[in-house]
Amino acid sequence: MPHHTRRHLLRASGAAALLVALGAGRASAQALELVKIVTGFPPGGTSDTLCRRVAEALKGGSFAKAALVENKAGAGGQIAIQAMKGAPTDGSVILQTPASMLMIYPHIYKKLAYDPFTDVTPITMACTFDFAWAVGPAVPATVKSVPDFLAWCKANPSMANFGSPAAGSVPHFIGVLLGQSAGIELKHVAYRGTQPAIQDLVAGQIQAVSGPVGEFLQQAAAGKIRILGVSGKERSRFAPDVPTYIEQGLKDMYFSEWFGFFAPGGTSAPVIMNANIALRAALAQKDVVDGLAVMGLEARSSTPEALAERLRADHDNWGPIVKKIGFTADS
Questions:
Q1: Which of 31, 97, 118, 211 has the least C-beta neighbours within 10 A?
Q2: Domain 131-230 part of CATH 1.10.1040.10
Q3: pLDDT tens for residues 143-177?
Q4: Distance of alpha carbon 220 from alpha carbon 328, whole angstroms
């Protein structure tokens, strides 16, 4: 059995056993009439799709009789987090957000309208994902690796460009750090999402794009773009033939991100426990796991404590990185 397959089976069986243990100790609670899952992004995207799959899995269970998704898009995901202020703390309103809004935004916005440690309460991680670096027809076919691309950019500085889904995002910062590693400036072009950037990549309007690995799979399979590297510690199972940045000699270039579920700040421990059990059970359902995999996402739940620890560690880790890069949302 391949190593990655065995690893995922072990992880799944361990998660299932943990869910049984948690369920056995669950405090009895009446199912909520309606649970709203709030996302800061519009319908159709990765975040929205995740929410809708989980909402469908929650319906009619012991936690919620009904569940729906509420899209509060805008300000790069900030509006949805702000909406948690004053929201009911009975479990009926749950936020789903990518990590960047909580771990990076506090370092790039001088005045952020929320506190990532007091205005939301961790429930469970939802999934993890790695990033990829891809090039299109504007880059010669002889460029087959990230070091090749950086060398080509050094020889052709007017073409040293890359796109990302947003300024101040992890993919943006990956591009800056790659450029710094080679002593060159890679000029950044911010898009409203990864797909618009990939459209320009396929059309030869931009040389490279940095974004979540799952976003590139369809175009790469069609031969329209080439994925040169991925950001995980290990190769992505979604692009197993693509070496990591570390494999290509770019040490310390390891980045991943996660989506998480949160309740409003001040939500009680029993409510968090019940929400955690329900959400982890939803995330363990095969159709949810398979649906996330199509988007290059690894379903991965956690305890509230583990998510809180991960958030704090990632927040603290990104502080010096952002300082080194020198980016602010006002720059």
A1: 118
A2: no
A3: 999 999 999 999 999 999 999 998 899 999 999 99
A4: 33
